[in-house]
Amino acid sequence: MQNKQDFMKTKPVFPLLLSMAAPMVLSMLIQSLYNIVDSIFVARLGTEALTAVSLVYPLQNIVLSLSVGVGVGINSVIARKLGEQKPEEANKAASIGMGLTFIHCILIIIFGLLVTKPFLSIFTSDPQTLAWACRYSYIVLCFSAGSLIHICFEKIFQSVGAMLLTMISLLVGCITNIILDPILIFGLFGLPAMGVTGAAVATVTGQFCSLFVYLIIYSRKDIGIKISPKYFSFDKSTILQIYSVGIPSSLMLAAPSLMSGILNFMLAGFSDIYVAILGIYLKLQTFLYTPASGIVQALRPIAGYNYGAGEKERLHKIIRCSMLLVVAIMTAGTLAALVFPQQIFAVFIDDPALIGPGSTALRIISLGFIVSTVSVVYAGLFEALGCGKKSLLISLIRQIVIIIPLGFILSRIWGPVGIWVCFPIAEFLAAGMARIMVKKQNF
């Protein structure tokens, strides 16, 4: 039986990958641009405000990790079931996944109310910074339903190759954010200046706008997947399939939060300046890795569909094309970081105390960008094939297992520079491990 997604095993690989990746890369670049613009606006309020928002990043990333991770699990199950020509099973996976997302929304609100202040108090003793950080965090966590549900829709749409529709939704949310940020932060058009609170309100408003776009599209267009209460049940097999990929993926995405939280603690022992530098770098890293993530998001449904359909030779070609595209992106990022580090940091802040050491950090960390291609692509591949634990292992090696203990040791010798050196070392070791794991995988 033919279905709407058969193009994923018939269309030439390179054009297919580009056609599905391009909308995601564009929309995610705009999302990353928003994150950078947001930091620029917040930085105009002062270093304390920028530090406050940087401290909230780990908590935000935990929420994002949960929603995206479970979404990746849903995406993986749907794509493989469609490849196996089992559309009813795909509908069940989508409906159960949406139900689980609603449960997660409730848990996140409870988490935000209970954890925010104790967590943030660990990293700063400045009362103004803590107050701003708590205010920002309460808003983005307690109104996170817009983010969680729209990301669930996003992964369902991506699983059937509807990347253009996903792009439209993301663009609406990002543009809303960018427009509202200066208005709410600085109090334009007669509105009161809300400062850091305004940045948080703009963020959640954009997320709900993205969700509304998905609801409108889904109600008017048949995407090939049906989300309905009649398909929902607490079916153990489907839930296990979703979480077997989703939990490792969530942990993998949460690893940067754990990493940044621990590194913030180490860096705060030297100066809050280095905490701000790490916060800026993490936003720059997001901007760089966003195009790579767009390629991987296109890779997942294509690889999962072809794996389910038994098209293994085509699967290998998909992997090679993905590697080529991500290497090109990372090479450009490396050159920019090595040649223009001062100019890049100057976009965020004009404090020479930040620009100098920030440029040094960026140059050192960028030495691992190109080799990270291997672990980034293979981690996405393992998620597509339902091997979530292997993706998690790659991520833990990249972001926890090497960086944290080595950073603790080297920071005692070289200060903050010792922490920056750990980043490229971890990338090389993770790439080697990922390659070994792929060789052992029979596909």
From TrEMBL:
**Which compartments does it reside in?**
Cell membrane
MF terms from GO for this chain are: antiporter activity; xenobiotic transmembrane transporter activity
Predominant subcellular localization, coarse grouping: membrane
Annotated membrane topology is: Multi-pass membrane protein
Under the heading Pfam families, the entry gives: MatE
Q: Which residues form a coiled coil?
A: none
InterPro entries under this entry? MATE_fam, MATE_MdtK, MdtK-like
Share an example GO biological-process annotation for this protein.
Answer: monoatomic ion transport
Write the record's keywords in alphabetical order, separated by commas. Answer: Antiport, Cell membrane, Ion transport, Membrane, Transmembrane, Transmembrane helix, Transport
- Record-level GO cellular component terms: plasma membrane
Annotated membrane-spanning segments are 12-34, 54-74, 95-116, 136-153, 165-189, 195-217, 238-256, 262-282, 321-340, 360-381, 393-411, 417-438
Domain of life assignment: Bacteria
Which function does this protein serve?
Answer: Multidrug efflux pump.
What protein family is recorded?
A: Belongs to the multi antimicrobial extrusion (MATE) (TC 2.A.66.1) family.
Q: Which NCBIfam families match?
A: matE
Could you identify this protein by its name? Probable multidrug resistance protein NorM
Q: Which organism is it from?
A: Hungatella hathewayi
